[in-house]
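Aim 2 progress update. The chain analyzed this quarter is reproduced below.
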Amino acid sequence: MEGFRKLEINGGTVVDDSAVRLTIPSTESGYTNAQIDDYGGRKRRDYIWRPDQHVSLSVSLSLEARFSHPADELSGTAGFGFWNAPFGDPTMPWPTLPKATWFFLSAPPGDLPLNPDGSGQGFFASTLDATTLKAISLAPLAPPVVLLNQFSGFKKRVWPRVQQALGMSYQQLDHINITEWHDYELNWRPDGCVFSVDSNIVLKTDQSPKGPLGFVCWIDNQYMAVTPTGRMSAGIRPIDQSQWLEIRNLSIQKQQS
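Predicted structure tokens:
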């Protein structure tokens, strides 16, 4: 794909034919990744995409996608959208606080702090921005909040406020058969984000992560679990059989909001 970097790690492959297929092989150990992005070799401040409230400019992403397996049969993470590569990149390894707006898949045992009453596993439309002053100001409160989140009443009252400060919004998309082709759209505006599947809005939020961000589409075998009650883990999952993500008709445009 012209204008996009192919990132193929430990057997991961990116094949551009009638559709772009990102495949990771079966493996018992080791990290494997297949990815396309438009930020390889750039410094984060030079990433391409950001909305602009001064000229009412938004960023619009659309593509068709399908996965080889349902979310609970995959290993690792996958998705497409915009982020700041917070955990480093082969061309720029320095970590930073995360921010993203994307369609994101987290397979078991991955578990992210999305819903205080349910699982952070599955396929989601979601946003996050941990770089704001409000988010950073919460850091000293993290230990007592984690401790008190063991009590369900406290967690229901406080965790939504934490999510708001972190720019977190989400909608679980378990009703979608991700092994079939679907049209996915993301409109990233200065005042929020709108996610649609097959022209139906699935999430409309006033959360809008600060740019600039880079486009990414990937599939890998890495997981992360960070729950409101303080359970944290990360690692690599073995893969019994190869798995893939296919996309086609990818379009990213800047347009008037």
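The helical segments are 133-137, 142-148, 152-165. The radius of gyration is 18 Å. These observations will guide the mutagenesis experiments scheduled for the next reporting period.
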